[in-house]
Amino acid sequence: MQTPGPLQPVHNIKPYKHVQGTHQIEHFFRAAAGLDVDKEDIKRYYDFVDQKVADMLLMAQRTAKANDRIRVEPRDLPITKGLQESIHAFEALDLDIGLEPILSRAVPEPEIDLAYSDEVEAHLPAIAGGLTLAVVRAFKILDPQTKHPATEHWERAFQIFHLLL
Predict the structure, then answer these.
(1) Considering the chain, what is the average pLDDT of its residues?
(2) pTM for the whole thing?
């Protein structure tokens, strides 16, 4: 990667493809909470993860700028204790499923003005996985009997996460 000048904006852009991972996502939702998801749910899931990762990177950029840094470092990411626990639980559950490698190719890197470190880029799939586990668990909290999340479940989960993250 070319090092940017101090006044040159940097945009981190990774090709964004939602073409793989359907089986792993379905398997993960079943293993984590006994949920069955369809193609519309998977689209909603990707939209959710995309938005939350973009929000986190935007806040991380603000933190890095406030500390006069020219790139985003892991310490800039607004990882809460609950999200950190979800990341660890995701990593343990994902050992047999293999969703993290899919997320490493699927999670887009939104355009922000600062570059971010290789450590941040390497951590994004695990963050997306932690968000995945958190939203899966939220469905069971919202409706313990649900087997297939409906549109209203997704909307309520988005509202809750919008307030928290």
Answers:
(1) 86
(2) 0.83
Give the fold, CATH level 3, of 22-164.
Histone, subunit A (1.10.20)
pLDDT tens digit sequence for 100-109: 998 888 776 6
Residue of 122, 118, 133, 51 lying closest to 87 (CA atoms) = 133
Residues 6+ away with beta carbon under 8 Å from 92: none
Cα torsion angle, 5, 123, 66, 12, sign: positive
103-112 CB burial, b ≥16 within 10 A, e <16: bbebbbbbeb
Residue-range domain boundaries for the chain: 22-164
Please give the Cα distance from 27 to 11 (Å, whole number).
33
